[in-house]
């Protein structure tokens, strides 16, 4: 009978302690495992006929053995990665690739980090440029530009040589002088952004025109002075680079209306801004 009790106690001890040593077992809790070891130690001591002192020693020994075998911490499994990390990807502490700008292309592969939220990107993580004009889609104000077309910073086609981008018509100067009127200055102020955008990438010819009153030579000289007055205003008040503007006096040689009427003469007294390369 005593031998069977010993065997039973020994098997119980092995079962409890082996359970303690298994990290995945329910008895892996450190305090519970240690207490279980102490109880088993007491059972073994009592089953072998030990007195009270022996039982105490058995309890202490069982608890000590269990404490050595039981894990002190619970190991949690790392979370599964949402995707297989491609070659070159930067990994976090769990070995998962991360995408700091959330554009769908992981860091380490993304050649354009910091893409604004919601911007569509290519396989390299760079914003798309559907029309290939050098201005990405989310900044392109003129999508679908034909291939080979020169564009400005907004993706819009630049005027080509010979295009008139602006014409100041009417009475733009004091009578028989090159002094700009307040109305003409207001027109120039409103056009500065347009002229600046053009002169960022191209040159502009500022052409002065007159009506047919007076001699042709006089009108040519006057038109040049008026063109120079406009250039001076744009450089000093609009901040436009002087080397992007060229003043030219056209005189009365290029009318846009008949000089036989006051209305036609007013239309012919103008300053045109013409693109030149």
Outline the structure in words.
Helices cover 38% and strands 9% of the residues. Mean pLDDT is 78; it is low at 5-17 and 23-28. It has 3 domains: 2-69; 79-126, no CATH class; 164-276, OmpA-like domain (60s Ribosomal Protein L30, Chain: A). It has a 4-stranded mixed beta sheet. The protein has helices spanning 2-21, 30-47, 52-69, 182-199, 216-238, 262-268, and strands spanning 164-168, 203-209, 245-251, 270-276. With 277 residues, the protein is of the alpha+beta class.
Summarize the structure.
The chain is α+β, with helices and mostly antiparallel strands and 277 residues long. The protein has helices at residues 2-21, 30-47, 52-69, 182-199, 216-238, 262-268, and strands spanning 164-168, 203-209, 245-251, 270-276.
**DSSP strand tally:** 4
In whole angstroms, how far apart are the ends?
114 Å
**What is the gyration radius calculated from CA atoms?**
45 Å
Mind summarizing the main beta sheet? 4 strands, mixed
How large is the count of helical segments? Answer: 6
Mean pLDDT: 78
**How would you write the strand order of the largest sheet?**
1-4-2-3
Number of domains: 3
Topology, element by element:
Blueprint (H helix, E strand, L loop, with lengths): L1 H20 L8 H18 L4 H18 L94 E5 L13 H18 L3 E7 L6 H23 L6 E7 L10 H7 L1 E7 L1
Parallel strand pairs: 2-3
Antiparallel strand pairs: 1-4, 2-4
């Amino acid at each position: 009978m005593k031998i069977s009790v010993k065997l039973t106690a020994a098997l119980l001890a092995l079962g409890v302690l082996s359970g303690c040593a298994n990290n995945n077992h329910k008895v892996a809790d450190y305090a519970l495992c240690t207490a279980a070891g102490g109880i088993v130690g007491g059972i073994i001591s009592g089953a072998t006929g030990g007195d009270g002192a022996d039982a105490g020693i058995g309890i202490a020994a069982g608890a000590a053995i269990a404490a050595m075998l039981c894990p002190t911490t619970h190991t949690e499994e790392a979370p599964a990665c949402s995707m297989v990390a491609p070659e070159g990807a930067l990994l976090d502490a769990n070995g998962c690739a991360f995408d700091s700008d959330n554009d769908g292309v992981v860091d380490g592969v993304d050649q354009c980090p910091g893409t604004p939220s919601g911007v569509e990107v290519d396989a390299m993580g760079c914003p798309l440029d559907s029309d290939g004009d050098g201005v990405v889609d989310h900044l392109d104000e003129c999508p679908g530009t034909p291939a080979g077309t020169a564009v400005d910073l907004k993706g819009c086609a630049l005027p080509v040589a010979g295009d008139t981008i602006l014409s100041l018509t009417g009475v733009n100067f004091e009578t028989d002088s090159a002094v700009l009127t307040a109305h003409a200055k207001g027109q120039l102020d409103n056009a500065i952004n347009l002229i600046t955008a053009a002169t960022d990438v191209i040159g502009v010819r500022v052409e002065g025109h007159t009506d047919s009153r007076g001699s042709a030579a006089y009108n040519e000289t006057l038109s040049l002075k008026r063109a120079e007055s406009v250039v001076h205003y744009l450089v000093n008040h609009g901040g436009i680079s002087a080397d992007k503007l060229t003043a030219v006096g056209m005189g009365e040689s290029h009318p846009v209306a008949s000089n036989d009427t006051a209305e036609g003469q007013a239309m012919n007294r103008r300053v045109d801004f013409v693109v030149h390369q």
